[in-house]
Amino acid sequence: MSLNHDLLERALPILMRCVASDIECGCTLARDNAGNFTPVSGTCELDQVGSIEADLELIRDIEAEIGTGSVSIPTWLQDLLDRRWSLT
Question: What is the value of pTM for the model shown?
Answer without folding.
Answer: 0.92
